[in-house]
Design a protein that fits this description.
This protein is an alpha/beta fold and about 230 residues long. It folds into two domains: about 5-125, Response regulator (Rossmann fold, 3-Layer(aba) Sandwich); about 135-230, Winged helix-like DNA-binding domain superfamily/Winged helix DNA-binding domain (Arc Repressor Mutant, subunit A), CATH 1.10.10.10. The protein has eight helices and twelve strands. The protein has helices spanning about 15-25, 40-45, 65-75, 90-95, 110-125, 160-170, 180-190, 195-210, and strands spanning about 5-10, 30-35, 50-55, 80-85, 100-105, 135-140, 140-145, 150, 160, 180, 215-220, 225-230. The chain has a five-stranded parallel β-sheet with strand order 2-1-3-4-5, with helices on both faces. Strands 6-7-8-9 form a four-stranded antiparallel β-sheet, with no helix packed on it. Strands 10-12-11 form a three-stranded antiparallel β-sheet. Strand 11 (about 215-220) and strand 12 (about 225-230) form a beta hairpin. Helix 4 packs across helix 8 and helix 6 crosses helix 8. The longest helix has 17 residues, at about 110-125. The protein starts with 5 loop residues before the first strand and ends with a strand.
Length: about 230
C-alpha cells in the first residue's frame, strides 16, 4: 500500500467524534471529521477518500441522505453506517443506499478497525475476473462485466455498482445451478455475517428488478443454500 488510507468521518457527538478520530489515526488512517450533516457532502467533494463512516442520526441532514449523495458523486465509495438504532428497516435502508457494513452503537473499536481493513483489502485486491473480455448473454440481456453495464435488447444499458456486477457475474457463471450463499458472501463481502447476508439480499432484489423485462429470467432463493439464476431457453 502506498500512503495511508483516508477516511471521511461524519459524527455529530463531539466527544465520541474526537475519540473516534484519534483512535482511527492511532491505527494509521488519515481522518477528516465533520460534525454537522449539512456540511458533509460539500466537505466530501473537496477531498479524496478511501472510505466514509457516517453516523445515521445527524442534525439537519441524516446519514442515509448523505450516503446517497456521496454515492452519486462516487458510486464505488465504501460506506460504513454508525447508529444506535437496531431496527431491521433501518439496516435494510442502509444497505439499499449501498453500505458495505452497518455498525450499531456501542461497538468494539477493535472490531470496527477489522471491518474497515477487511473492506479496504477487498477494494485493493479487486475482482478475480479481470481477464473477462467478452459480453455475457443472459436471456435477452447483454452483460458487460468490465464496464458494469447491463443492456436489454437494444435499449440503453443500466450501470451496475461493483457489488451488483460481481454478484451477477457469479450468478451468470452458474446459470440454472445453485450459487452457494456462503461462497458468494466470502468472495464478494469477505465474511458470512448477518449484516453482509442482509446486504446480499438487498443486491439480489436489485438484480431481480434489473432483469424483470425478460420473463424467461428469474432469480430463485433456495432456502438454506443460495440462489439460482434461472434462464429458460425459448
Amino acid at each position: 500500500m502506498i500512503g495511508k488510507n483516508r477516511i471521511f468521518l461524519v459524527e455529530d457527538d463531539l466527544n465520541f467524534g474526537s475519540v473516534m478520530k484519534s483512535y482511527l489515526e492511532m491505527n494509521d488512517f488519515v481522518v477528516d471529521w465533520v460534525n454537522d450533516g449539512k456540511h458533509a457532502v460539500a466537505s466530501f467533494s473537496k477531498g479524496i477518500y478511501d472510505m466514509c463512516i457516517l453516523d445515521v442520526m445527524l442534525p439537519h441532514v441524516d446519514g442515509f441522505t448523505i450516503g446517497t449523495e456521496i454515492k452519486k458523486l462516487k458510486p464505488t465509495m465504501s460506506i460504513i453506517f454508525l447508529t444506535a438504532k437496531t431496527l431491521k428497516e433501518d439496516m435494510i435502508k442502509g444497505f439499499t443506499v449501498g453500505a458495505d457494513d452497518y455498525v450499531t452503537k456501542p461497538f468494539d473499536s477493535d472490531v470496527l478497525i477489522y471491518k474497515i481493513k477487511a473492506i479496504l483489502k477487498r477494494n485493493q485486491q479487486g475482482s478475480n475476473f479481470d481477464d473477462i473480455e467478452e459480453d455475457i448473454l443472459i436471456g435477452n440481456y447483454t452483460f458487460d462485466y468490465k464496464k458494469r453495464n447491463l443492456k436489454y435488447n437494444d435499449e440503453e444499458g443500466v450501470k451496475l455498482s461493483p457489488k451488483e456486477a460481481e454478484l451477477l457475474l457469479y450468478l451468470s457463471q452458474n446459470i440454472n445451478r445453485v450459487l452457494d450463499r456462503n461462497f458468494a458472501l466470502d468472495k464478494i463481502w469477505g465474511e458470512q455475517g448477518y449484516f453482509t447476508a442482509r446486504s446480499m439480499d438487498v443486491y439480489i432484489t436489485k438484480l431481480r428488478k434489473f432483469l424483470k423485462a425478460d420473463s424467461n429470467i428469474e432469480i430463485v432463493n433456495i432456502h438454506g443454500s443460495g440462489y439460482i439464476l434461472k434462464v429458460v431457453s425459448e
